[in-house]
Amino acid sequence: MSEPDLTTPAPAGHGWRVVDIVVAAVLGVACGFLFWAWNGPGFALYDVLDATTPGLGGLTQGLWLIGGPLGALIIRKPGAAIFVELVAAITSALFGSAWGITTLWYGLAEGLGAELVFLVLAYRRFTWPVAVVSGAMAGVFEWAFEWLFMGNRAKTALFNGVYLASNVISGAILAGLLAWWLTRALAATGVLARFAAGREARPAR
After folding, report:
1. Measured between alpha carbons, how far is 43 from 64 in angstroms, rounded to an integer?
2. What's the burial of 29, exposed, middle or buried (CB within 10 Å: 0-12/13-18/19+)?
3. Which tens digit of pLDDT belongs to each residue from 7-48?
4. CA-CA distance, 32 to 86, in Å (whole number)?
5. Is 181 left (phi over 0), alpha (psi -120 to 50) or beta?
């Protein structure tokens, strides 16, 4: 049995089907619930890490970034990363995010970062390295959003450097690599049979 690597190009034409919209929405809500559930533990761990080394709290950010890479890996259509991450942010806000309406702007920035990597590759590569870079880029955009709009530019260069590196590492692993593994796990169950990601999981004969 060969191991799928998610390299099959997206189907000809980038138009969204009804099933794409429905599944993307479901993914967004599921990720939003994850974001909400991670808020408490994530905040607590952030404070512990930041007290150890200012900026190191960025290592907790990855789970809040997973929607973008996951949506892109499964849907494989332009805008999928932004759509899923934004729906996740909206869902998290509705559940009761500490950031309130600002959560939506976080979601948009993080989704854009993840989306950019797949856009550059013309939505034709869906390997684990691409997923890792997508997660890392979501971390970069999250960092940039906080630097531009949330007051981080007033903090020290050391803090911002550590925070950027921590976001990138966390995004690469907890968003990108985990999204790739989840896509493979879902594909193996057969629930993604109507998507290229699911068809790739079929055993070679």
Report:
1. 11
2. middle
3. 444 444 578 999 999 999 999 999 999 999 999 999 999 999
4. 9
5. alpha
Q: What is the dihedral of CA 135, 63, 31, 134, to 10 degrees?
A: 0
| Tally: H helices and E strands in the chain | 8, 0
- Tell me the C-alpha distance between 83 and 21, whole Å: 9
Which amino acid is it at 90?
Answer: I
Q: Which of 32, 56, 27 is nearest to 159 (CA)?
A: 56
Q: Rounded to 5 degrees, what angle do the CA atoms 13, 14, 17 make?
A: 100
Q: Is 190 exposed, middle or buried (0-12, 13-18, 19+ CB in 10 A)?
A: exposed
Q: What is the Cα–Cα distance from 201 to 192, expressed in whole angstroms?
A: 9
CB 115 within 8 A of CB 145: no
pTM for the predicted model, two decimal places: 0.89
Distance between first and last Cα of the chain: 8
Q: Sign (positive/negative) of CA torsion 182, 185, 190, 195?
A: positive
Tell me the pLDDT tens digit for each residue of 121-134.
999 999 999 999 99
How many other CB atoms are found less than 10 A from the CB of residue 117? 23
Q: Which residue has the tokens 């138009």?
A: 15
* CB-based contacts of 3, cutoff 8 Å, min separation 6: none
